Amino acid sequence: MEKIALTAIIAAGILARALTIWIGRPEFAGWFNHTYYYFVEVRGILQTRAMPYGDMPFLFYFYALIARILMLFGVEINPAIVISTRFVMSVIPALTAVPIYAFLRSLNENRTLSIWHWLLIFIGAFIPLSITQMPELPQKNAVGLLLFTSLIAAIYQALKSFDLKKLVLIVFLALLIMFTHLRTLVAAALFGIAITISLFFVEKDSKRFRISAFSVLFLTCSSLLTILIFDPARFDRIFVYLTSSFSNSLLGLLISGSTFAESLQFLAAIIIPVGIAYFLYRIWKAATLSSSIPDKIFWLANIIFCYLIDSPLADTDVAPRLFLFITIPSIVILGFHLKYQKRKWLSVAAVFILFLSSLVMTFAKLSELS
Question: Which pLDDT band, with edges at 50, 70 and 90, does 32 fall under?
């Protein structure tokens, strides 16, 4: 029964994208945002076996593979690229529901998933929460979101019971992210940092903490090398951001001396995330006696990850680009609340509000198109 429900949710996500974008907006040459850049990159691979512009190669070569298969059946090169792009971007984002289901199923072993769990899975299939905003999501972001969700679900499984297969899966997903999308790679690195902090907080200087810290360091170094090889221009921009990020952070802008009104805005933007993080921490703390060690570590890591993205030290030009990835930890945190929160109505209300906001955004955007 659960497999049928999951299949129906995925099918709804695919159908929504196919109807609103593939069929409803035929004027786009592929997908909506950055569509011609992707088109040129894929055509370059098919014609010259190389991308005209430096970039992380995985998604472009995946498009080219599907386009090449279509060309074997007589489809011309340009339509083949468009069809491959639209097919992948209709299917891939909806599959984000699968790792969310896997996490919630593992979290609730021997328990029936409630309607509120299924609403979380439904939300996962429709990120970024509006079917008319979906085409505005750059294509590598959508693929990266699926890979990121799969990665953190695999990390949770490894925390519960570690074996070689789970390690191979985590390494494989990390490599795919590395060769797909820089922004997703940054999110994965931040999640690695969050897991490391959480391990130290729960287990102190344990073997798992040291392994996690080494893994984050190794991922960072190997990622920088990969970016240098495939996209040297972006490699240079990373260091530009690093050298200027503090001055452009909320804390840097607050210190640099702005108007009184702007200072109040910056101060509020710093205090509010701290308050939310502390509220979530108190809920986590209250459940520590009844939760397992893996649940404690993973739950706290997701709270830390959300705060790291909205940290006062984060560059205000970079942080908004990572907000998309907060949706998944939010779903994870709500999953823990549904299991451990004694006042169930709070968790149910939070899930319902998230779901309702999805519907409101969807229909509001659709009304603009009518």
Answer: very low
Burial letters for 217-232: b for 16+ Cβ neighbours within 10 Å, e otherwise?
Answer: eebeeebeebbeebbe
Query: Residue 5: is its pLDDT beyond 90?
Result: yes
Cβ within 8 Å of residue 144, ≥6 positions away:
177, 180, 181, 183, 184, 187
pTM: 0.85
User: Which of helix, strand or coil describes residue 341?
Assistant: coil
User: Is the N-terminal amide bond of 273 cis, ω within 30° of 0?
Assistant: no
User: Under 8 Å CB-to-CB from 357, ≥6 apart: which residues?
Assistant: 129
- The dihedral built from the CA positions of residue 207, 192, 301 and 166, taken in this order, carries a sign that is negative
Q: Which amino acid is at 54?
A: G
Q: Dump pLDDT digits (tens) for 9-19.
A: 999 988 887 87
CA distances from 244 to 227, 257, 266, 318 (A): 20, 17, 18, 11
Helix (H, G, I), strand (E, B) or coil at 320: helix
DSSP result, 110-161: TSPPPHHHHHHHHHHHTTTT-TTTGGGS-HHHHHHHHHHHHHHHHHHHHHHS
CA neighbor of 170 nearest in space, from 187, 186, 190, 192: 192
Comparing CA positions, the residue from 159, 157, 233, 144 lying closest to residue 189 is 144
pLDDT of residue 368: 41
Q: Tell me the one-letter amino acid at 291.
A: S
User: CA-CA distance, 175 to 354, in Å (whole number)?
Assistant: 32
Spatial distance between the Cα atoms of 329 and 127, rounded to a whole number of angstroms: 13
